[in-house]
Design a protein that fits this description.
Layout (H helix, E strand, L loop, with lengths): L1 H20 L2 E7 L5 E12 L4 E3 L17 E8 L4 E3 L1 E2 L4 E3 L6 E10 H7 L8 E3 L2 E5 H4 L2 E2 L7 E6 L6 E3 L11 E6 L2 H6 L1 E4 L3 E6 L6 E7 L5 H19 L7 E8 L11 E4 L2 E7 L14 H8 L26 H16 L5 H10 L3 H4 L3 H11 L4 H25 L6 H15 L8 H9 L4 H8 L5
Parallel strand pairs: 1-12, 17-18, 18-20
Antiparallel strand pairs: 1-2, 2-8, 3-7, 3-11, 4-5, 4-8, 6-7, 9-10, 10-15, 12-14, 13-15, 16-17, 19-20
Length: about 475
């Protein structure tokens, strides 16, 4: 019996190794006259009724549910016997193929990007298709086979032969035209990436940066990519001065300055990614010229997320649950700690504390009556739906950070500060290679600062109205 069990154990090990090693080949096909793109996925043969083609409903940092499945159509599976099977919508955000006796090695589907931009009123959530431009947000168009998210991926892009192709996966001034290929380790990296195609895309590299720093922008009005780059360099240098190092191998600021599709569409929210940020703005916010007094808080903040939470995070943020908006108990940490670092420390804007305090004081009772953790749970799907939730989450987190900072500096006579607490979280994640649990956060920060932070920690865990 032991030998048989060991035999089956070896089979399972070999199967899992096979799953993790076999690459899935994605091909993104784009025709300039169409409002849609076609995605193909080729893979080692799988039983048709085993496959669930998952279409993401969310992305890290969105704190929202987005029905990307609504823009997917013409889903087909291709069998080794030559049959084409129609994909059927399952009871979640996925498609299934019902014929159990067929073996599939390819899936294709279409994504209506034009409809996506029309229907999703928040510009930050959508890919875009305009004349001479295609802007792809990875998780809005790429699906995956459930259970195969960790497989390596080869991505091929086919578009107009005269169109340059830019990606945050491999940013460069010199871009291939018409066709390009990328290799990534898993679906998370593919979904996190951005792709900007077309002759109207401007690419600029900031020469003075310590890491390759790029601006990739599409604008329906004149802009200065050099000025965007200058502001990005100021932000990066400020963050490096604070943290003491830069974790990104390269960084791209992806900007869109768009003519609004309607009065109901909103432009202004930006999104952070592992080695990039995306900003979809109204043309009225175009950055056109040098401004010595330019406000760079938005860049500092989103770039700062490349430290936290993108490289140190609580449960729910990583590994990400693409099929839903995961419950995250630490949004206040993700957002509030970086608000505090960005505005109070890097930019030296001390009056920001007044804004945080007034936000909390003016909050409705249903927000004030929630603990920090419960408010974060609420914000997991409604962070920007009622932005009082989002503002109170980052305000409470920032004020907690400030109180920790004051205590740490007092107890260590200025030798240590909140920076040591946040560096402790980053180091802990690097060593342990997993998300920290909620009840581990305070002890990690206390240990890294050599200060008992429990009293301040416990104070901020309670509802504002006791």
């Amino acid at each position: 019996m032991k030998k048989i069990n060991f035999f089956y154990f070896l089979i399972i090990i070999c199967f899992n190794m096979s799953v993790s090693q076999n690459r899935i080949v994605y091909t993104l096909n784009h025709t300039t006259n169409s409002g849609k793109i076609n995605i193909e996925m080729e893979f080692d043969t799988l039983k048709a009724n085993f496959i669930k083609l998952v279409i993401p409903r969310s992305g890290p940092g969105t704190y929202d549910l987005t029905n990307y499945l609504a823009f997917v159509s013409d889903v087909n599976g291709y069998s080794t016997s030559g049959k084409t099977l129609k994909g059927l919508i399952g009871d979640g955000s996925y498609f299934i193929f019902e014929e159990k006796d067929e073996m599939l090695n390819k899936i294709s589907y279409e994504v209506d990007v034009k409809k996506m931009e029309l229907d999703l009123l928040g510009a930050f959530a959508s890919s875009k298709m305009r004349e001479d431009y295609l802007g792809i947000l990875g998780y809005s168009v790429f699906g995956f086979i459930e259970g195969y998210q960790k497989n390596g991926i080869i991505l091929k892009i086919n578009t107009n032969k005269n169109w340059p192709i830019f990606s945050t996966l491999r940013p460069a001034i010199d871009r291939n035209k018409g066709v390009d290929t990328y290799e990534v380790d898993n679906f998370d990296i593919l979904a996190d990436a951005q792709f900007l195609l077309g002759n109207e895309v401007q690419v600029y590299q900031v020469k003075e940066s310590k890491i390759p720093l790029f601006v990739a922008a599409y604008a329906e009005t004149p802009i200065s990519v050099e000025e965007i780059g200058r502001r990005g360099l100021l932000s990066l240098n400020g963050l490096e001065d604070y943290f003491g190092y830069i974790p990104m191998p390269h960084y791209t600021m992806c900007y869109e300055f768009l003519k609004p599709l309607s009065e109901h569409h909103s432009y202004g929210f930006s999104m952070e990614h592992l080695n990039s940020m995306t900003a979809s703005l109204n043309i009225s916010n175009a950055i056109k010229e040098y401004d010595e007094n330019a406000r760079i808080g938005g860049i500092v903040h989103h770039m700062g997320h490349s430290w936290l939470p993108l490289r140190s995070y609580g449960t729910g943020y990583r590994p990400f649950e693409w099929q839903t908006a995961p419950i995250i108990e630490t949004i206040w940490l993700n957002e509030g700690f970086i608000w505090y670092v960005s505005f109070y420390n890097v930019l030296g804007f001390k009056r920001i504390l007044n804004f945080f305090n007034s936000t909390i004081d003016e909050a409705p009772e249903y927000i004030q009556d929630k603990s920090l953790k419960d408010l974060s749970i609420l914000g997991s799907t409604q962070y920007s739906m009622d932005f009082r939730i989002g503002k109170n989450l980052f305000s409470r987190g920032a004020l907690l950070a400030h109180d920790l900072d004051v205590l740490i500096q007092k107890e260590t006579k200025g030798v240590k500060s909140f920076k040591d607490a946040i560096l402790g979280l980053l180091k802990w994640t690097e060593v342990n290679k997993r998300a920290f649990e909620y009840n581990e956060i305070e002890s990690i920060m206390s240990k890294s600062t050599s200060v008992d932070l429990s009293k301040v920690w416990n104070k901020w865990q309670k509802p504002i109205r006791n």
